Amino acid sequence: MTQIPGIDVPDARGRTGLDRVGRDLSGNPRVHITDVELVASAWHVLRRTTFEYRRADGTWVTEARETYDRGNGATILLHDVARGTVLLSRQFRFPVYVNGHPDGMLLEAAAGLLDEDDAETAIRREAEEELGVTVGELQHVFDVWMSPGSVTERLHFYAAPYTAADRTADGGGLAEEGEDIEVVELPFDEALRMVADGRIADAKTIMLLQWAALQGPFAAGARR
Fold it and tell me: Which stretches does the entry tag as region Disordered (predicted)?
């Protein structure tokens, strides 16, 4: 009998039972999971799940969905209200390059997967690795499913102040993980203009900048 990596025997990341995820879901009585197929697990996990779904009119239908499971993540907007700046990163993103971005060099807030850490620990790690900033007090902003039609990831959003003294390293990411990140400091008002004209086109970054303008540190009456 053939043993399948990721199901019967460990895959390259030491995982087994990847086809079990979701089979025991019981929170929605209108959904009955009938099968979970492991489609791919080279690094992250692609599953095809078949389920019975009771529609609003009471009829039951059989449906199938593919879900991409890359784990959950966290992102952060670092802001210096006194100087009116935010600290972002620029790096090459192949998925956006292949889908129409002119050069794939995306300007965005620091972010990363949680891996085995909690969200606060993970985003402190990412801010230090990518931007070279030792983060002090964190402000939790919100948690969002960014692409709920196909990707399971929930992204935890944070904000934190920074000063020149908090920039304790060069940043740039981890070379051993293939990261080549440019640290970019921008006037906050310029960052908003870049959202408007498309120079900033990353969803999480736009959400954080708009939050900062409407409710956060750069909102009317909040600037000191």
Answer: 1-24
- Quote the tokens at residue 200: 């900033």
138 and 160 in contact (C-beta within 8 Å)? yes
Which pLDDT score is estimated for 174?
Answer: 61
Determine the residue type at 108: E
User: CA dist 37 to 41, 97, 143, Å?
Assistant: 11, 30, 28
Count of CB atoms situated within 10 Å of the CB of 168: 10
pLDDT at 167: 79
pLDDT given for residue 141 in this prediction: 98
Q: What's this model's pTM, rounded to 2 decimal places?
A: 0.92
Biggest alpha carbon distance in the chain?
Answer: 69
C-alpha–C-alpha distance, residues 165 and 175, integer Å: 24
- Write phi, then psi, for 128 (nearest 5 degrees): -75, -45
Q: Can you say whether residue 173 is alpha, beta or left, with left for phi > 0 and alpha for psi between -120 and 50 degrees?
A: left
The mean pLDDT of 76-102, rounded to a whole number, is 96
Q: Please write down the HEC assignment for all residues of the chain.
A: CCCCECCCECCCCCCCCCCCCCCCCCCCCCEEEEEEEEEECCCCEEEEEEEEEECCCCCEEEEEEEEEECCCEEEEEEEECCCCEEEEEEEECHHHHHCCCCCCEEEECEEEECCCCCHHHHHHHHHHHHHCECCCCCEEEEEEECCCCCECCEEEEEEEECCHHHECCCCCCCHHHCCCCEEEEEEHHHHHHHHHHCCCCCHHHHHHHHHHHHCCCCCCCCCC
Question: Beta-carbon neighbour count of residue 116 at 10 Å?
Answer: 8
